[in-house]
Amino acid sequence: MNPIYIGIIEDNLDFLLSLCGVLEQYPNFHLSTWNSAEEFWANGQSKVWDLLILDIGLPGMSGIDVLKTYHAVEARKSLVISALQTDDAIFSALRNGASGYIWKSELDSLPETIQTILEGGSVISPSIAAKVLLSFRKPQTNQDLGVGVEVLTPRERQILELIVEGDNPNQIASLFGTTVGTVRQQIKAIYKKLQVNTRVQMVKKARQFGIF
């Protein structure tokens, strides 16, 4: 089998190990990994990759920023694997060249997903496909809520979604491989940007914006 060169940008080391564990079962997959977009641009961007796999909520430069630059040069293939489920993240990734978008819980089907993309196809999770369809039926978002969700960073949007789903700071810190203190500071930043004072108000404002 011909070698397939895959680059991976993922800051969650536990998830990165799981991801590599799945892909290393295939001897023709040759992997290179980076923990940030900045590290990728410094050490990996000059190589021609058959597929670039990346998360959206990266520290520093976001995965969306990577896609914008990566796909601006030539026809390339990329796959987003993320826990971020907001419409904004999904549509931004697809608009900026991603050939696929799947959840981090879907690694069992990853080899088949990669093969489909390498053959010129596109892959999105069924639940994402449902979001795409629903987006065409959503009424226009009220623009008079006082602040736009676009002011949130990709990581802040990811934390906001996890909070809406019921996760607490300890669970979020474990998922991201960071400290609880860091997560609490990010939550405070979300409160300030959304102009709210409580979790209930934050969830209500998020739903008003129609980002879930």
Low-confidence stretches: 139-150
Q: What is the first-to-last residue Cα distance?
A: 42 Å
Please tell me the CATH architecture of the largest domain by its name: 3-Layer(aba) Sandwich
Which CATH class of the largest domain applies here? Answer: Alpha Beta
Radius of gyration from the alpha-carbon trace, in angstroms: 18 Å
For the record, the count of structural domains works out to 2
Order of helix and strand elements from N to C terminus: EHEHEHEHEHEHHHHH
How many E strands? 6
Average pLDDT reading: 83
Give the overall shape: globular
Treating each run of at least 4 consecutive H or I residues as one helix, how many helices? 10
> CATH topology of the largest domain, anyone?
Rossmann fold
* DSSP strand content: 5-15%
Helix content: 40-55%
| CATH 4th-level superfamily of the largest domain | Response regulator
In which order are the strands of the major sheet placed?
2-1-3-4-5-6
Query: Biggest β-sheet: count, sense, barrel?
Result: 6 strands, parallel
Describe this protein's structure:
- With 212 residues, the protein is of the alpha/beta class.
- The protein folds into 2 domains: 4-134, 3-Layer(aba) Sandwich (Rossmann fold), CATH 3.40.50.2300; 149-208, Winged helix-like DNA-binding domain superfamily/Winged helix DNA-binding domain (Arc Repressor Mutant, subunit A, Orthogonal Bundle), CATH 1.10.10.10.
- It is built from 10 helices and 6 strands; from the N terminus they run E-H-E-H-E-H-E-H-E-H-E-H-H-H-H-H.
- The protein has helices spanning 13-23, 37-43, 63-73, 87-95, 110-118, 126-135, 154-164, 169-176, 180-194, 199-208; strands at 4-9, 29-34, 51-54, 78-82, 100-103, 123-124.
- A 6-stranded parallel beta sheet has the order 2-1-3-4-5-6, sandwiched between helices.
- Helix 7 packs across helix 9 (180-194), helix 7 (154-164) crosses helix 10 (199-208) and helix 8 (169-176) crosses helix 9.
- The protein is globular, with a radius of gyration of 18 Å.
- Residues 139-150 have low confidence and may be disordered.
